[in-house]
Amino acid sequence: MPPVSCPWIMVALSLVAVVYIGLVALVQTDMKKLVAYSSISHMGFVTLGMFMFVGSHLNQWAVEGALVQMVSHGFVSAAMFFCIGVMYDRLHTRNIADYGGVANKMPIFAAFMMLFAMANSGLPATSGFVGEFMVIMGSVQVNFWYAVLAASTLIFGAAYTLWMYKRVIFGDVGNAHVAEMKDVNKREFLLLVILAVAVLGMGLYPQAFVEKMHLSVNDLIAHVAQTKL
Predict the structure, then answer these.
(1) How many CB atoms lie within 10 A of CB 104?
(2) How far apart are CA 33 and CA 94, in angstroms?
(3) What's the burial of 59, exposed, middle or buried (CB within 10 Å: 0-12/13-18/19+)?
(4) What CA–CA distance (Å, rounded) separates 187 from 189?
(5) Residues of the chain whose pLDDT is less than 70?
(6) Which end of the chain is more exposed for a tag (fewer CB within 10 A), N or C?
(7) How many Cβ atoms from other residues are within 10 Å of residue 88's Cβ?
(8) What pLDDT does 200 receive?
(9) Contact at 8 Å (CB) between 111 and 38?
(10) CA distance 108 to 116
(11) Where are the domains of the chain?
C-alpha cells in the first residue's frame, strides 16, 4: 500500500489556529475573551496531533499528546475561567484596565491564578506542558517546520497570559473598587485546590494518564492503517 501523506489541509488549519489565534489573543482587552481565544489556540494542538501521519500510520506520540491536551485543557481552561469569574463576582467587569494590584488585596487567589496562568503558558511540571510537548515531538518526526510553528505557542501563550496576569494582579492597587476586594472564601478556595491538584498531578505524573491511552491509540492506528478499498 502506498504511504499516506499527512493531510496538509487539516495541518495547515491547525497551525493557523495555533499561531494566528495566539496573536489575536495578544490584543484582547477582555480577560474572558483572551482566555477563550487561547483555548482555540490550544485546541489547534489537538487537531494537529490527530492528523500527524508517518507513512501510512498515525504518529503515536502526536495522537497521545492530542488526547492529553484535551484532558489538560479541561482543567486549565476551567481554572482560568473560574479565576476570572471570582474577580468578576467582586468587581462586575472583565476589562483588564479596570484592575491592577489585585495581589495586594487577594494574595491567596493571586497565588492560585499564577499557577493556572503558568499552566496556560505551558510551564513544565504543569498539565499544560505535557500534551503540547508530545505533539511537538510527534510533529518533529513528520516535518521539522510543523514543529517549529507549533512550538511558537509557547512564546505567544506566555506573552498573552503573563501580560494579562501582570496588568491585573501585580502593581499598585488600581482603583477604589480593587481596594475593597476580599480574598477567596472557603467554597472558592476548595474549588481552586481541586483544580490545582489536577493541574499539578497531571503535570508531575503524566504516565498515569498516558498508560491508559496506549491500547486505544494502538487500536486507532491499526484501524487507520487498513485500506478501506
Answers:
(1) 17
(2) 9
(3) buried
(4) 5
(5) 1-6, 54-57, 225, 227-229
(6) C
(7) 13
(8) 95
(9) no
(10) 13
(11) 8-217
